[in-house]
Design a protein that fits this description.
Elements lengths: L1 H17 L2 H19 L5 H16 L4 H9 L8 H28 L6 H44 L8 H31 L8 H18 L5 H7 L1
Helix pairs in contact: 1-9, 2-3, 2-8, 4-5, 5-6, 6-7, 7-8
Length: 237
């Protein structure tokens, strides 16, 4: 019975995960960049999967720009340095612009609006916005990691010899630091993906390199979308 309950809990988490549009989008993203890695820019089945999945993903992102617009006009947490606030707001503005323009790219690529030259121009502008937002995100994560490092050292001193790994506050900051570090890796790799998609360094960042980096960041995004396992832990207990 316990095994059945645990299985039901696992399936419940899977359903909860797959019910999220963001999670499905990241799964499609992994397929997209995995196909790009396999095709290496050469015509064939893998490239067809890459192109069709790229277009399909744009449907998941319709009106998603509203999320970052909301974050842009929302107040920053108290105590956040002005530099990080400005970088964070710049990231929100650039990402919102990327997602907004991406809707017009979908309209053009789906055949509703038939002007390939203008669609391609909008697509490049949107990718530049995404690349810039990823740079801002990297800088924000670096700044937040530095703040967390200072807070952890301060907390360790306050404990005065006690085991810091048994302190909930210290462990909470460690978890935040790990999450920030993972987000930093993802943002940094996404900059490389954007450079590859824009073909700014075609000899060094080939479609295969772009696909590899994009696939890894997609897996990171899929991991970040995982629901809390607290309910499962209670059932197993």
């Amino acid at each position: 019975m316990c095994s059945l309950e645990a299985t039901r809990a696992e399936l419940g988490l899977a359903v909860l995960y797959l019910n999220k549009a963001e999670a499905r989008d990241k799964i499609c993203r992994a397929i997209q960049y995995g196909s790009k890695f396999i095709s290496n820019g050469q015509p064939g089945t893998a490239q067809n999967v890459d192109k069709s999945t790229t277009l399909a993903r744009k449907v998941f992102r319709l009106l998603k720009w509203v999320n970052d617009l909301h974050a842009l006009i929302s107040p920053a947490p108290k105590g956040t340095p002005l530099t990080l606030v400005l970088l964070g707001k710049s990231k929100n503005a650039l990402l919102s612009t990327f997602l907004f323009l991406d809707q017009f790219v979908w309209i053009g690529r789906s055949g509703i609006y038939q002007n390939k030259e203008r669609t391609d121009r909008i697509a490049r502008i949107s990718l530049y916005c995404w690349m810039a937002s990823s740079v801002c995100a990297s800088l924000v994560e670096l700044g937040e990691l530095k703040r967390l490092s200072k807070a952890m050292r301060k907390r360790a001193k306050e404990l005065r010899g006690a085991d810091k790994y048994e302190d909930e506050q210290y462990l909470g900051k460690m978890k935040q630091s790990d999450d920030r570090l993972l987000a930093l890796v993802k943002a940094g790799m996404d900059v490389v993906v954007a450079v590859g998609l824009l073909q700014l360094a075609p000899k060094k960042i080939t479609p295969r390199v772009t696909g590899a980096f994009g696939f890894v960041t997609s897996l990171i995004s899929c991991y970040q979308q995982l629901p809390s396992r607290a309910p499962l832990a209670k059932l197993k207990a």
